[in-house]
Amino acid sequence: MYSFLQNNSIKLVISSLLFIVGSIFIQNWYFKNNNLVSNDSAVQLPLTEEDLSHYNGVGNDKLYLGILGSVFDVSSGKRHYKKGSSYHYFVGKDGTRALVTGNFKDETDEKDHVLDLKCDDIFAIINWRKTFREKYVYVGMVKGRYYASDGTETEYMKKFKIKLKECREEKENLKKQDQLYPPCNVAWSEAEGTRVWCSKSSGGIQRSWIGVPRQLYTPGDKKPKCVCIKEDTNMLKPYHGCSSTSTECYINVD
Ligand code: HEM
């Protein structure tokens, strides 16, 4: 009798477990296939540009702003974005380019094109995206230059990421160069012309040595840059008429 009851209890527990596991599986399958899952891991399909254009605060209270293909709900910042406000241009579209060009009239296909911009502009755009991420709610992606209709990144986005990486590397190299060759202090007066000089903090680089001014030619730059060098290795050009050990020199003085 006892063993009969025990067998039945085990069967009951097993069938209950199977029922619970089955229910969870069916529920997940149903929600997934009906796009009702709202957690972050769910695949969200991008909005179309047409969808996005409706969220411009005209005939719709919601304000959506696109940047690098990501869309944010900026309704809480409506004082900036509602019709008639300074930054109304940015809603209902991806107008990334104007964030650095300031051209709020650009309605061409180029308004989210950024690959030709300088590294400083690319960094500015990345900072804008960070601001939007921190301040507003992310809505999703917009299909177009940065994301394909299945939500995957386009070739353009891949190129953008490569450019960003190159810009970061360039910035890092410039920082290293600044440590090795800190920029000089520069001042100009009508009486003396341009004066360049080194100090323990010139170029914003704090150090224990002062150094002497020399001319550094950088590829792509028309004019040499004045840098301070610790030891004279004869690799950089001295300033004309300036003693090789002087910490200050005058440019354009014959
Ligand atoms: C390329 C030019 C510019 C662009 C693209 C730009 C863009 C923006 C954007 C998108 C916002 C809203 C940010 C948010 O949602 O919180 C903003 C806010 C603001 N901008 Fe500009 N802006 C530009 C130039 C200027 C200039 C020249 C001034 C001042 C002379 C200025 C002053 C302000 C101020 C005071 C705010 C409000 C800040 C706040 O209340 O949080 N902007 N700008």
From TrEMBL:
Keywords assigned: Membrane, Transmembrane, Transmembrane helix
Pfam families registered for this protein in UniProt: Cyt-b5
Matching InterPro entries: Cyt_B5-like_heme/steroid-bd, Cyt_B5-like_heme/steroid_sf, MAPR/NEUFC/NENF-like
PANTHER family xref list: MEMBRANE-ASSOCIATED PROGESTERONE RECEPTOR COMPONENT-RELATED, NEUFERRICIN
Organism: Pieris macdunnoughi
Annotated Cytochrome b5 heme-binding domain residues: 47-143
Protein family per UniProt: Belongs to the cytochrome b5 family. MAPR subfamily.
Record-level GO cellular component terms: endomembrane system; membrane
Keyword ATP-binding attributed: no
Organism ancestry: Eukaryota, Metazoa, Ecdysozoa, Arthropoda, Hexapoda
Ranges that cross the membrane: 12-31
Name of this protein: Cytochrome b5 heme-binding domain-containing protein
